Amino acid sequence: MSESKTPLLDTIGGPADTRGLSIPELRQLADELRLETIDAVAQTGGHLGAGLGVVELTVALHHVFNTPDDILIWDVGHQAYPHKILTGRRNAIRTLRQGGGLSGFTKRSESPYDPFGTAHSSTSISAALGFAVGRDLDGGDNNVVAVIGDGAMSAGMAFEAMNNAGSSNTRMIVVLNDNDMSIAPPVGAMSAYLSRLLSSRPYRGLRHIAKQLAQKMPEPMERTARRAEEYARGLITGGTLFEELGFFYVGPIDGHNLNHLLPVLKNVREARRTNPILVHVVTQKGKGYAPAEEAADKFHGVSRFDVVTGTQAKAKANAPSYTNIFAEQLVREAERDDKVVAITAAMPSGTGLTEFQKRFPARCFDVGIAEQHGVTFAAGLAAAGYRPFAAIYSTFLQRAYDQVVHDVAIQKLPVRFAIDRAGLVGADGPTHAGAFDLTYLASLPNFVVMAAADESELTRMVATAALIDDRPSAFRYPRGEGEGVEIVLPAEPLEIGKGRMMREGNTIAILSLGTRLGESLKAAEDLTAKGYSTSVADARFCKPLDEDMICRLARGHKVLITIEEGAIGGFAAHVLQCLERHGLLDEDLKVRTMMLPDCFIEHDSPTAMYTAAALNAPDIVATALAALGQAHKVKAPKLA
Question: What is the CATH number of the domain that holds 444?
Fold first, then answer.
C-alpha cells in the first residue's frame, strides 16, 4: 500500500479540525490541499487557476473564522474548489461538474458552508451586506466575509454594494483577492508589517484618539489633519479609494504567506468596528503548479489533463465550433466595413474575439465584467454611426437587460447581439444555461431575433446582422461544435423574417428554431418510416416570424410541433399568437410545443441534459404520435 501524499489533509473532516493546527502544520495542509485540488481537477476538468491561487487564503479563513456560523461567501465560485475539499466534500470532489456530482460553483443546497450560491461575478459584497444586516436585525454577533477577485471589482455592482456598505455602519469584511491587476505596490515584509499594524487594536485605538483630538481643532485644521492621515495611508497602502467608499482598508498582504495572513485576519476578526473592513490580498493565479503558472490564462478553465505535463485532453473536433465560426465571419465583415466594431465583457477568448482583437485592436473593446456598461457603450457606438457587435453569453446578457430595453430597444439603435452559449451548456449547469434569451429579447419591440440551426446559417446571420441598420438584432448559437455542414462564402444575407422548408409532407409538421433542427430531421425520417408524411421547417427567426410559412404548415397538416432550445414564453408563444391571429387554432389542427422544461436543469453533459429535457428525436416522434392518438403517453422531461 503506497504512502499517502496528503497525510495531514487525510485527518481533516471539516474546518474545525484546522483550528488547533500550528502555522507549520497549516503550511503543510495548504501544500497538500493544492496537490489534492490539482489531482481532482485533472480528472474532472473545471476551473483550476483561481482555486490554486487561494489555497493559503482558504486555509487561513477557515482556520481563523468559525465557519459555517461565520458566513464565508466566495465570489463567482471558480475559486472555491479548495473550500469544498476542506468543508467535508473531499470524498465527492472527483464528481465535480459531473452528472449527479458536486457543482462547479458554491451552492446552498450542497453544504451549510455554502451560504450563498455564486456563479456569476460580483455578487458577493451585496449578499454579504444582506447577511450582515440580517445578523444585526437579529442581534447576532457572527462575522460575515466576502472574498472577491480583482476582476470582479470591474463590475459596477461591486461598487454599488461597497458604496451602500460603507455608508450603512454595518460590520463586515471584504477580502479583495488581487491576482491579475497591478493595483498595489510590491508586496513584501514591509507592507505585511504595515498591514498588521494598521489592523491592530493599538493602531485603531490611537487613530480613534487622534480623530477625537482633531475634532476639537478648528474645522480647517481638523479637515486637514484627517485628509493628511488618510492620504498618507493611501500612499503607503493604496487604500484611498476604499477609504473614500467608507471601508477601513488593510493591505496589501501576501496571500501565500500564512505568517502575514493569519495575524491580519485575526485582527480584523476581533475588530468591533461599525464600518466594513477591506483586506487587500495579493495572490498568484495558478500558484504552485508550473503548467498553470506558465499558461497565458493560468489554467482558468481546463478539460481533463495530465498532472505531470499539464497537457489537456481535447477531444478531436468533428467540425469547427460555433464560437469560431462566428468569429471568422465577424473578421470578414470587419475587413469589408471599417465601421464594424466588437465589444466583449471580459471574455475575448470565450466569445472568439481573440483574432478580431489581434487584427483590429482599435476596433475591439473589452469592457471588463461590466455587461450593463458594455451594452450602453455599444448603444453609444451605434448612435455615433458604427456597427457594434456585442458578443456576450446568453446567461451574462441577462445582467444587462434594462440597458437592452432602455438604451437599445426603445431608441431602435442597431446594436447586434452575438449570443453565445444558447441552450444547455453542460458542466456549468443552470447558472450558465442560455435558456431565457428568446423570451426576454423577442418580447421587445423593434428587435430582430435569429437562431442558427448550423454553422452555415450562423455565418449568414452574422452577415445579415451587419446590414441591419434601423433596429437592434440578435442571433443565438450554442456552445460546442457545428453540424459539419459546408459553409459557402461569401455569406449571403438572409431575407428578414423568412424561414426555410427542409422537407415536405402532409400529416405532421415540425417547426424548429435553432440547432434542434438535426433532431427534427431524424424524427421526420422515423415518422415517415412509420407511414406518417412529415414536413420539417427551419424558422430561422423568432422575430419577425415567417407568418406565411407558419400558416401554410398549419393549414396543410394535422399536427404542428414547435421545438426550441429555450424556456417557456419564447418561440412557441409567438407561434401560438400567430396562429390565434389567423384563426388557425379554431379548426382541427393539433398544436404541440416542445421547449426546455419549466425548471433549472442540473449540470451534466449537454447530451444528457437534452435527454432529460425530452428534446431529442425520440421525444419528437412520441409527441407527434400522441397528438395523432397513436400513443397514450409522451415521455415527460426528467427533472432534477
Answer: 3.40.50.970
3-class state of residue 74 by DSSP: strand
Region of poorest pLDDT, from 153-157, 408-412, 423-427: 153-157
Same domain, 468 and 515: no
Q: Is 315 inside any structural domain?
A: no
pLDDT digits (tens, 9 = 90+) for 293-350: 777 666 677 778 777 787 887 777 778 899 999 999 999 999 999 999 999 998 898 9
pTM of the full predicted structure? 0.87
Domain span holding position 165:
9-294
Residue 567 gets which letter from DSSP?
Answer: -
| 312 within a domain of the structure (yes/no) | no
Neighbouring C-alpha atoms within 13 Å toward the C-beta of 514: 32
Mean pLDDT of the chain: 88
| 399 in active site | yes
pLDDT tens column, 14-64 = 999 999 999 999 999 999 999 999 989 888 888 888 889 999 999 999 999
Please pick, among 27, 135, 285, 387, the residue that the annotation labels catalytic: 285
Q: Given 233, 387, 399, 460, which residue is catalytic?
A: 399
For the question of residue 201 being annotated catalytic, the response is: no
What's the CA gap between 557 and 578, in Å, rounded?
16
Sign of the Cα torsion 83, 85, 87, 93 reads: positive
Q: Which residues contact 440 (CB under 8 A, 6 or more apart)?
A: 398, 401, 404
